[in-house]
Amino acid sequence: KSAGVVALAGNPNVGKTCIFNALTGMRQKVGNWPGVTVEKKEGVFVVDGREVMVVDLPGIYGLTPYSVDEKIARDFLLKEKPGAVVAVVDTTNLERNLYLVVELLELGANLVLDLNMIDRVEGQGVKINKEKLSRGLGGVPIVETAAHKGFGVEALKKVVLEAIQKGKREEFKVDYGSEAETAISELAHLLEGKVASLGFSPRWTAIKLLEGDPEVQELVKQQGGEEILKMARQLAVSLEKKLGSDPETFFAERRYGFIRGLVRQAVTATEKDLAARLTLS
Ligand code: GDP
Ligand code: K
Ligand code: MG
Question: For binding Mg(2+), which residues are annotated in this chain's numbering (predicted)?
């Protein structure tokens, strides 16, 4: 009867709770994430006679595992592998909100992009070309909502069910430039036999190793990948020399660069001040 699980992800204050309530109504329960006092909300909605379970993730700005909230969100996505993820964004702050969206896509989430707070954007001279935005993000389905009024929520339910039924799309890639891409492919190739069985993307794992992500390092170690870790450290050092900045900073800057380019292409504002606000990062 249950079609699958959808997780809601987004920065704090983008309207995630409003979306969660509008989707699930009274059919929700509140508990805690295992081992921590961070609130976990779960609920269900029914669309086209199919039941979908909804999990509200903590509000986060990214998927680095340095804060408890980010760790909870990333662990859930990696280990529970929900059928779909709705990235709820505050559309009046699109550029800043897209950083998490890009990280979710790189992680391999089967994403639906929810442009929330659309009521605050409309009629103000801002135009979002959803086709261009979707194409730039590897073809993610996009839904517009004004969650506090329930606008767009029925459409969101349908799109989520479709996404769950279709399953994962193609791998999304940010182009990190030839130096970094060479290191990524080399590592990803070595990782294929180690992490594919866990359902982790070798490319994502390679990027995280180059960033020096402690959790991913531990995971690769557990898979007997000591040699790969050694190789990753060497590659990271030589990459740092070539790039002139540490890989973690470099990858983050490339993601921001990619997002700036995408917003320039897909968003136009007729009022100068509004344009400035939309591209504020
Ligand atoms: P969360 O922190 O992501 O869970 O955000 P909340 O659901 O608590 O919403 C934050 C604030 O934004 C609340 O005051 C909501 O009423 C308001 N809000 C949520 N969605 C919308 C929307 O689509 N349009 C407008 N104008 N306000 C919204
Ligand atoms: K809030
Ligand atoms: Mg909330």
Answer: 21-22, 24-25
Say if residues 169 and 43 touch (Cβ distance below 8 Å). no
Which tokens belong to 238?
Answer: 């030589």
Which pLDDT score is estimated for 169? 73
24 is in an annotated binding site: yes
* Sign, Cα dihedral of 89, 90, 92, 93: negative
User: CA–CA distance from 111 to each of 58, 70, 204, 223 (Å)?
Assistant: 17, 17, 16, 28
Q: Does 195 show up as a binding residue in the annotation? A: no
Distance in Å, CA 12 to ligand 2 centroid: 6
Residues with C-beta less than 6 Å from any ligand 1 atom: 10, 12-18, 59, 116-117, 119-120, 145-148
Q: Which atom of ligand 1 is nearest to the CA of 14?
A: 3
Rounded to an integer, the average pLDDT of 115-139 is 91
Pairing of strands 267-269, 126-128: antiparallel
The protein residue whose alpha carbon is closest to atom 2 in ligand 1 is 13
Q: How far is the CA of 266 from the centre of ligand 1 (A)?
A: 24
* Token digits of residue 65: 């595992």
Residue pLDDT, tens place only, 174-193: 999 999 999 999 999 999 98
C-alpha 58 to ligand 3 mean position (Å) = 7
What's the predicted TM-score (pTM) here? 0.93
The complex's ipTM?
0.96
Is 213 marked within a binding site? no
Residue 274: pLDDT band (50, 70, 90) is low
In angstroms, what CA-CA distances link 196 with 121, 169, 192? 42, 17, 6
Chain CA centroid to CA 148, Å:
23
